[in-house]
C-alpha cells in the first residue's frame, strides 16, 4: 500500500538521480494536523477591487501576514488571486503575471487559490470568456506547480461576495493541509441562508483564538458513515470524530468485527446494517433518533466494485454494484428527507469516483453507479436550494487503499504518477474533504462534485 | 433516632432491572476457528462488540460479572482481566462466577438483583467457554512431587522427592464432562433420564431439526444483526446446519446410552457438541437506560435455582430446572398459559423432552414436585423459536447470555412474557422470567 518510490525520491541521493534523469519527483504533501498553523509565511492577495481588499482584511483577521504585492525574495505560503471583477480576457494579464512571480516564491506545500465568478451567471460574451479563461489558467497553474503545492478556485455564484462565510470557509480549506490532495478543482459557493450556518464565528476564528485548542467544527453533530469498517470509510469515521462529531459507523453484519474496532477507536457506535436491505434507513434513523435525537451528517461511502468488460458482464455483477453504490443511496435519502430525525441543516455527502467522470475500462457498472451519484447529487441539490440542507459528492481519484493495492504493480505505479502531485492520495485526503463539506463553513456549497485526485489526468 | 431506625428497617422498594441489549460472538465448534483463542480473548471480543454497539467506550459500568466453566487457574480474575483488555473504563469492577452451564444466566440474575436494589445502575453479565483452549492439569502424583520439590532444601531432599515420580504420573489430565461423584459423562447421565422418560429417537431428532431450522430462519431475517459481532472471520454459528434434514439426523449412530439395555437414542445430532464462544448482556436500571437514551428490551422479573440429588436420589442429573420452575411460577402467580416464549436450553434434545414430559406427568408432579397435578404442557410453537443450543452450540458459560439477549429482543419485538430454563452439571438448574415492556 505504501508508495515506496515517493519515500525513495525524498531522500537526498535518489532524489538527485531522479532529477538528473527527469523522473517524477513527487513531494511529501503537507497534511492537516490539529492544531495547524495555516500560513507560516505571508500570503499574497493579488487583484484589484473591494473584493480583494475585503479578503485581505479577512486574512489579517486570521492572524495571517498579508502582502498585496510580491516582495522580491520573500517566501510565500500562498497566493490568493482575486479575479471576481474580470470583465474581459484582457483583465487577466496583470494578476496572472503577478501570480507567475508569486509561484516562484511558494514554499513547499504552498497554495494558489483563485476567486472568480461563474461564466454561467453572465450573458456578456466577453465577461463569460474572462471568467472561463480564469478556469483554464488556474488549472494550468495547478499542473505547473511542484513541491506538493496546489492551485484551486472558488467560484462565486450570483452576487456572492468574496468574504461570504462559505467563501472564507472554502479559502481556509484550500489553504489548510486538509486539502492536500485536492488540486485543480473549482468549488462553487452560493450565499448560504443564515439559519443553515449554526456557528460561522467558530468556523472563521483567528489563529490566535485557536490557542492551541484543536478545531472541532463538527462538535455536537451526529454523523452516519456507511461502509465504515475499513479503508476510506474507517478514515472518514476517524476524521469526523476528530473534528468533534459523534459517529455512527455502519457496515454489513459480516464486517462487524472490524466495524466494532472502528467504532471503539472513534468513540462512536457500530450499527450492523446491510444498506441494500429495505429496512436499512429505518434502522439507521431509529438508532440515531433514539440515541442522539438528530441526524446531522450522512456520508454515503459504502461501495463495491465488480469489474468486468461489458461484453462479459452478467446481471448479478451489474445489479449488485447498482444496488449498493446508488440505489441504496436514493432509497435512504428518500427516507431521510421524510424523517423528522434528519436535521433541517443536514448534510449529505456521497462518494462518487473519477471513474464516474471519465469512465474506466472494465467498470461500466461501477461508472454508471458513480456517475449516477453525481446526477442524484445535482438534482437533490436543486430541491435543497436555500433551505439549509446541502448535498455534495466527493470523487476520489487514485487513493492508496487495500482496493488499489490489488492493481498490478506496474499499472499501479503509472496510475500514481498520472496526477499533478505525481502520487496517489491517502484515505485521509478524501475524509478531510468530506469533513469540510459537513462543516458549517461549507453551508453555501451545494450540488458540487469535489474531486480529491491530485489533478489526475483521468477525467479532467 | 427513631426515624433513622424506621428508615433502616423499611424494605426498599425494588426497582426494575431491564435488558438493554446483548452481544455475542458466533459460536465455533471445538478445535475450529477459535482453537487458538483463549477465554479472555473471546470475552474481550464479546465485550468490545457490546461497547461498540452501545457506545460505552471509556464508560464505568456498575459491575461486570462473567465466568467460564473450563477455566485455567491463571484466569482466576478472568472477567476483570477482560474488562481491562476491553474498551470499557479500567475503573469498571468485575467478578467471576461459576455455576457450570447456568453461569451466564446466574450472572444476569445476580447483577439484575444489584440493579433492583439500587447498588448499581448498569451491569454487564455474561460468560465464555473454550473447549479448544481447555486447561490441562498435571497428574495428582506429579503435582505432589512438584509441590514437595519446591519445599525441598537440600540436594538430597530434592533427589528423594524426584525419586517418588512414576512414569504414569507424567500423563496429563484433560478436562472431561464427567461428574466427579458418579464418573459418568453428562451424556451418559442424560441417557439414563432419556430412557427413563421413554423419549424416542424420532422426537429427539425432530427437536434438533427444529432448532437448526429456527436458528437458520432467525439468521435469514437478520435477527442477529444487533445481537452478534463476527469474530476471527466467523459470521454465523459454525455448528448450524441450515440444510439438515430428519433423514440426515436419523442416519447418525447413537453415542450415549449404548449399553443401557434400552434402545440407544442419543446421537451427535441431538446432543450439543463441544463449542467455543462468548456472550454478554447489558443490563441497567430504567433510570440508566432513560438517561442514556438506551433501549429497554425486557424486564428481568425473577429467577429460581434448584438442585437435585442425582447421586442417590434417583433424579436425573439435568432435571433440576424441572424442580425450580414450579416454585418460580407459584411465587409469581403464573402458569404456562401466561408465557409467550419458552427458552429451554438444549443440552441434549433428551433433556428438553424429559423436562416437558415430567411437567406433563401428573403422577411425577404430585410425587416428586409436590404439586396437585401435572404442571402442564408447553405449546411447542413457543419453544426455542430462534433455535437453541443444538443448532447454535453450547459454550457452557456463554449460553445464558445468548438466551437472555435473544429472548429480550423477541419480547421487545412481540411483547409478552418469556421463560428461561438452563440445566447445569452437579444436578443444578436455574430458571428465570423476562417480561416485555409493551
CATH architecture of chain B: 3-Layer(aba) Sandwich
Overall structural domain count of chain A: 2
Strand content of chain B: 15-25%
CATH homologous superfamily placement of chain B: Thiolase/Chalcone synthase
Q: Please give the largest β-sheet of chain A.
A: 7 strands, parallel
Strand segment tally of chain B: 12
- Mind telling me which CATH architecture of the largest domain in chain A this is? 3-Layer(aba) Sandwich
Count of distinct structural domains of chain B:
1
CATH domain class name of the largest domain in chain A: Alpha Beta
Number of helical regions of chain A: 16
Question: Could you describe the 3D structure shown?
Answer:
The complex is a heterodimer of chains A (460) and B (438). Helices cover 40% and strands 17% of the residues of chain A. Chain A contains 16 helices and 13 strands. Chain A has helices at residues 4-9, 12-21, 50-61, 93-103, 125-144, 165-175, 200-203, 207-210, 231-242, 256-266, 280-292, 315-337, 354-358, 364-384, 409-417, 427-438, and strands spanning 43-46, 66-67, 76-82, 106-117, 150-156, 186-189, 222-226, 246-251, 269-272, 295-300, 342-351, 390-396, 449-452. In chain A, the strands form 2 sheets. Chain A has a 7-stranded parallel beta sheet with strand order 9-8-7-10-11-12-13, sandwiched between helices. In chain A, strands 2-1-3-4-5-6 form a 6-stranded parallel beta sheet, sandwiched between helices. Chain A is globular. The model of chain A has no long low-confidence stretch (mean pLDDT 91). Chain B has one domain: 3-Layer(aba) Sandwich (Peroxisomal Thiolase, Chain A, domain 1). In chain B, strand 11 and strand 12 (428-436) form a beta hairpin. Chain B has helices spanning 2-9, 39-54, 78-85, 103-116, 140-151, 155-163, 186-196, 201-220, 246-250, 286-291, 320-332, 349-360, 362-367, 389-392, 399-414; strands spanning 17-24, 28-29, 63-66, 94-96, 122-129, 254-256, 266-267, 275-285, 298-307, 341-344, 417-424, 428-436. Chain B has 438 residues and is α+β, with helices and mostly antiparallel strands. In chain B, strands 1, 2, 3, 4, 5, 8, 9, 10, 11 and 12 form a 10-stranded mixed beta sheet that branches. Mean pLDDT of chain B is 92; it is low at 1-8. Chain B has 15 helices and 12 strands.
